[in-house]
């Protein structure tokens, strides 16, 4: 089998895709680069990439150009030895640095795994290890720091009614520690003790503020606190982790696999969070997951739940999948959620098909 063609598109979708229909959304947009890799045996693999957290980012053109360049390099290659293809791309483009290259590599790597699964008649999850056929998942992006207390108290229980047993909120925007704590207290009182509640700070605090507020919210039994300070302050994160009983999660902001060694060896985190776009794809995700397992640490995913379900369900230390709905519009059908768990599609490869309606509506 040989790759014969790589086709890319830019899709500009609404930035928000709420899990509850009546949540108001703005007019901001989010850009994705989609990829289709065709082969001489009629098997097509799909992948996509975007710049996490960006809204209306002009770098999407540069990302598409980079995916196109990598696509040209893989034409004529056998797609099945994924590690060999990815290794050659890293050798060819490694001097460009980990930024746009990793984002672009993710799309290629994803499509290679999709082809391999389709060629062998197996899901990507099965090829990666197939530890189970579903994984816990949590509602994300619905309880942001811009929302007031009344909104949190209303929407949190409604997400439970929708079937979620886990959900994430945010701190980091309030002027006082008391106001920050009030957000967590409001949600815990609204949700009760049996719902797993996480909280993301998105690197907005220094070490001392993280410890001070982190200690004050310990009584509300958070499932984890996330990215309390800057991602590369390994010693500062370790100080926070030592000071708090609440588990500390981080990792979504780092590129490639090497920084995870620093986070793990320095005991900076209790939970390893891996962003698929920044780490460089499924192949690299699995390497970080193995590293975490060696240190008895669980792994959680960041964004792209329709793909990350394969990564998390495949491994024994996969803890939960972030159900962030940004990219769901791209596909005809996305993995089902049953009893608070996201189910691995029972079709070969990723089990995904790009939505032709979305392409017609959102293609730039």
Sheet with the most strands, sense and barrel status = 8 strands, parallel, barrel
Strand order of the largest sheet: 4-5-6-7-8-9-10-11
List unreliable stretches of 5+ residues: none
CATH superfamily of the largest domain: Enolase-like C-terminal domain
What does this structure look like?
The chain is α/β, with parallel strands linked by helices and 364 residues long. It has two domains: 127 residues, 2-Layer Sandwich (Enolase-like, domain 1); 219 residues, TIM Barrel (Alpha-Beta Barrel). 40% of the residues lie in helices and 21% in strands. The protein has an eight-stranded parallel barrel with strand order 4-5-6-7-8-9-10-11, surrounded by six helices. It has a three-stranded antiparallel β-sheet with strand order 1-2-3, with helices on both faces. Helix 6 links the parallel strand 5 and strand 6. Helix 2 packs antiparallel against helix 3, helix 5 runs parallel beside helix 6 and helix 7 packs parallel to helix 8. The two termini are 32 Å apart. The relative contact order is 0.14. The model has no long low-confidence stretch (mean pLDDT 96).
Secondary structure topology:
Blueprint lengths: L2 E12 L14 E11 L4 E6 L10 H15 L7 H12 L5 H22 L3 H5 L5 E10 L5 H13 L4 E5 L6 H15 L4 E5 L6 H10 L7 E3 L7 H10 L4 E3 L7 H8 L5 E5 H4 L2 H13 L4 E4 L2 H10 L3 E6 L13 E2 L2 E3 L12 H7 L2
Parallel strand pairs: 4-5, 4-11, 5-6, 6-7, 7-8, 8-9, 9-10, 10-11
Antiparallel strand pairs: 1-2, 2-3, 4-13, 12-13
Helix pairs in contact: 1-3, 2-3, 5-6, 7-8
Search tags:
TIM Barrel; Enolase-like, domain 1; 3-stranded antiparallel β-sheet; 364 residues; 2 domains; 8-stranded parallel barrel; alpha/beta; 13 helices
């Amino acid at each position: 089998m040989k790759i014969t063609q790589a086709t890319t598109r830019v899709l500009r979708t609404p930035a928000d895709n709420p899990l509850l229909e009546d949540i108001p959304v703005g007019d901001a947009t989010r850009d994705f680069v989609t990829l289709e890799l065709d082969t001489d045996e009629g098997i097509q693999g799909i992948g996509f990439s975007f710049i996490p957290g960006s809204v209306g980012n002009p770098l999407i053109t540069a990302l598409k150009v980079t995916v196109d360049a990598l696509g040209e390099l893989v034409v004529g290659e056998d797609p099945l030895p994924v590690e060999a293809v990815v290794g050659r791309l890293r050798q060819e483009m490694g001097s460009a640095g980990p930024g746009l290259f990793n984002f672009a590599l993710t799309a290629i790597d994803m499509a290679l795994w999709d082809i391999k699964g389709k060629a062998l008649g197996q899901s990507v999850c099965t090829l990666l290890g197939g530890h189970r056929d579903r994984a816990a998942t949590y509602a994300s992006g619905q309880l942001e720091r811009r929302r007031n207390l009344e909104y949190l108290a209303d929407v949190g229980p409604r997400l439970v009614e929708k079937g979620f047993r886990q959900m994430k909120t945010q701190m980091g925007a309030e002027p006082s520690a008391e106001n920050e704590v009030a957000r967590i207290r409001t949600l815990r009182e609204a949700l009760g003790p049996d719902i797993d509640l996480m909280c993301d700070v998105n690197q907005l605090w220094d070490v001392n503020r993280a410890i001070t507020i982190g200690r004050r919210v310990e009584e509300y039994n958070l499932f984890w606190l996330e990215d309390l300070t800057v991602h590369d302050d390994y010693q500062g994160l370790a100080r926070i982790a030592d000071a708090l009983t609440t588990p500390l999660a981080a990792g979504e902001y780092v590129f490639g696999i090497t920084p995870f060694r620093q986070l793990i060896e320095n005991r900076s985190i209790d939970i390893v969070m891996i962003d698929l776009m920044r780490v460089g794809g499924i192949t690299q995700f699995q390497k970080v997951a193995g590293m975490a397992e060696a240190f008895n640490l669980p792994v959680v995913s960041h964004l792209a739940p329709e793909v990350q379900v394969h990564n998390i369900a495949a491994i024994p230390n996969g803890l939960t999948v972030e159900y962030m709905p940004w990219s769901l519009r791209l596909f005809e059908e996305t993995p089902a959620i049953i009893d608070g768990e996201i189910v691995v599609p029972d079709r070969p490869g990723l089990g995904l098909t790009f939505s032709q309606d979305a392409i017609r509506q959102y293609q730039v």
